[in-house]
Amino acid sequence: MSDGYNVAVVGATGAVGTKLIEMLEQTNLPLKNVKLLASQRSAGRKLLFKGAGIFVEELTADSFDDVDIAFFSAGGSTSQKFASEAVNRGVVVIDNTSKFRMDKDTPLVVPEVNKEALKQHQGIIANPNCSTIQMMVALKPIKELAGIDRIIASTYQAVSGAGARAVEEVKQQSREILDGELTENLTTEILPVASDKKHYPLAFNALAQIDEFAEEDYTKEEWKMVNETKKIMEDSQIKVSATCVRVPVITSHSESIYIETIEQTSVDQIRDSLEKAPGIVVEDDPSQQVYPQALNSVGKKETFVGRIRQDLDIEDGYHLWVVSDNLLKGAAWNSVQIAETLHEMDLVRV
Amino acid sequence: MSDGYNVAVVGATGAVGTKLIEMLEQTNLPLKNVKLLASQRSAGRKLLFKGAGIFVEELTADSFDDVDIAFFSAGGSTSQKFASEAVNRGVVVIDNTSKFRMDKDTPLVVPEVNKEALKQHQGIIANPNCSTIQMMVALKPIKELAGIDRIIASTYQAVSGAGARAVEEVKQQSREILDGELTENLTTEILPVASDKKHYPLAFNALAQIDEFAEEDYTKEEWKMVNETKKIMEDSQIKVSATCVRVPVITSHSESIYIETIEQTSVDQIRDSLEKAPGIVVEDDPSQQVYPQALNSVGKKETFVGRIRQDLDIEDGYHLWVVSDNLLKGAAWNSVQIAETLHEMDLVRV
C-alpha cells in the first residue's frame, strides 16, 4: 500500500456496521477508499463518512476486487459465503461473527492481549465475542501479574448486542409497560434470540439466555466466553465458567467477574497492574461512589474496571466489575484496532 | 388467643407495607383485628383490607397496647425507637429492617430453612434481607443433600427494594431516555442509595452499589448476604461472597449463584432435591427455553430456580439462577409466614 488502504464494511447499515464507519472516521489507519456493502435490501442508501455521502452497494463476490481490508459484520452466513471469496481476491478479512473464531488457522485477537497471533493469519482474523473481549482486556494484566487459575463470570449484557431491531423492541416494550400494559400483551418477536422458538419481554426483566442453548445446558454465548478465553489466552488449562444474562440496558455490557490467581498477589498490585495496562480505565473509589457504569461508558473505547475486592474467604480470590461499550471495544473498535495493528506489524497481506 | 390475633402493620403505606396487607388478606393465621400504623404524614389515609376501609393511625408507643403481633417495615430508626416499646407491651415483633438481624438474641428466620430458631425468640424476630432469603430457600435443600462449602452470588436486584419513590424515579428516568433526554439531564435524586452522597440514573443502566459501602470495599448489602447466610444456616464456616447489583427491573430479584458442595452430588440429584423442597418451583428446561424470569415471578410467593448446571471444571461446582418477588418472599410474605409459623409452633408470646 502506498497512499492508503481500500477498506470495505460488510453489513454497513447494521448496529455494528454503523459503529465501524464511526471508528474508521477516527482511525489513524491510512485510508484511500471506504466501500459500504450490504444486502440488496439496503443497497442504494447513502451513509455519511467524514461528512461525505457514500452509497451502500449490494454485496457480491466482485465487491472485493479492489479491496485491501474488509470488515465483516453481517451475520455468520454472509461471512461463510463471502469471506473466502474476499480472501481469494487478496483481501484481509476481519470478521465480527462467530463463524471462524474457533478455527485452528484463524487468529482470534484482542490487540491489547494477543496481537502476536496476527502473524499466523491466512487472510481471516476473527474478532472475539463482545462479552469475551472486555473480560480479556481486564484479565490480561492480572494474568501477567500473578497467573489466573479460574474465572467465574456473570454478565449483565446490553440489548444492542442483539441488533438494532432488538433495541427497538425493548424500547417499545418499555413504553408499553410504562403505559400500564400487562406482561402477557407486550410485543415479543425478537428477544432473547431471534432464531429461537420462544420470545420473551426484556423490558424491566432479566433473561438468563443469550444465544441458543447448547452442550451441558450452557448457552452458546456462555460457551463463547469459555472457549474464546482459552484460545485468546493460549491457555487450555484455565478454568472458565459463565452465566450470560441479558438486561434492559441499551448499550455497554457489565460483568461480575471472580478470579483465582495462581500466585499470591493483592488488591493494590492488581489495581496497579490495571492502571498501567493499555485500554483500561480503573474507576474504583468506594468512598466517592466511583465504579464503572454502563451508561457512562457508552461511546468510549476503553474497558472500565472497578469494585476490585479480595474474596472474603479465598486468599487468591478476587472480584471485579468490568464494563465496556459492546458495540465499540466489543465489536467495531476492536475490529478497527486489529486493522491498525496489522498495519503496524506490516501484516496487511494474505 | 382464642378468637384470633390483633395484628399491626407499621409502615402500612410503604412498598412492603402495602404487600404486608395483601399477604394478611391471604393468610391462614386467625385474625381478629388489623391495625395500620404509619408516620403522622400518612395518618388518616384509608386503606382497604378484604374490601373494608381501615384508617391509617399515627404510630405511637401506645398503638401497641392491644396488639399481639406487629410487622415492622418503616425503616431501621422506627424499629429502633418502637420495637422494644411493643415488646414491653407483650407484642411479638416481626421486623423487616436490618436493625436487629445480627443481634445474638434475635432469631433471623426463613421458615423453610430454620424455623426452629423461632423457639429462642425474646419478642423480636428479624426478617432477613430480600436477596438473602431467596438464596437461602434455594440452597437449603442442596445443603441437606451434599453440604455447601462455598457460595459466590452476583445479583440482579429490582428497584422496588429501594422503595416506592425509587420505583417512580426509574420510571421517570425511563420515560426521559425514551424521549431522547441526555444522560446528564436525567432526574437522579434517590438511586442508588437515598442516604448516600451521589445519585445516578438506573434506567437502562446497572449499578454495582446497593446500600452504602462498608468494610473491605463490600457494600452493606453484600455484607448482609454474607453474614445473614452464616447466621440462618447456622454455619460460621460456610464461605460466602457477593456482588450486589441494581438493575432496571421493577420487582423480583434474580441471582446468579455458584456453589461448591462438600460431598459429591449431581445436577439430577440437586434438581430432585429442589423439586421436593417447600417454597420452590423448578423452572429448568433449556430445550423449551424454560428458566426463571423476574417478570414472571411478580406476585408469586415461591422462589424459582433454573439454569442448574455443573461447573465446567470443578466437579463439585454448580451454577443456579434464582428468582423471587423481592416484596413477597423477600419481605412481606416471609414476614407473614413467620407469623403463621409462630402460631403453628405456639410461640406467639413474649
The CATH level-2 architecture of the largest domain in chain A is identified as: 2-Layer Sandwich
Query: What is the CATH class name of the largest domain in chain A?
Result: Alpha Beta
Write out the strand line-up for the largest beta sheet of chain A, numbering strands in chain order: 3-4-2-1-5-6-7
Our measurement of the CA-to-CA distance between the termini of chain A, rounded to an integer number of angstroms, reads 13 Å
Report mean pLDDT of chain A, rounded to a whole number. Answer: 97
Count of DSSP helices of chain A? 9
Shape of chain A: globular
Major interchain interface with per-chain residue totals: A-B, 62 and 62 residues
CATH level 3 topology of the largest domain in chain A = Dihydrodipicolinate Reductase, domain 2
Determine the CATH superfamily of the largest domain in chain A: Dihydrodipicolinate Reductase, domain 2
- Stretches of chain A where pLDDT falls below 50 for ≥5 residues? none
Query: How much beta of chain A, percentage-wise?
Result: 15-25%
Estimate percent helicity of chain A. Answer: 25-40%
Category from helices, strands and their pairing of chain A: alpha/beta
- Helices and strands of chain A, in order, run as EHEEEEHEHEHEHHEEHEHEEH
- Described by its quaternary structure, the protein is homodimer
Q: What profile does the largest beta sheet of chain A have?
A: 7 strands, mixed
Total number of beta strands of chain A = 13
Radius of gyration of chain A: 20 Å
The overall number of domains of chain A is: 2
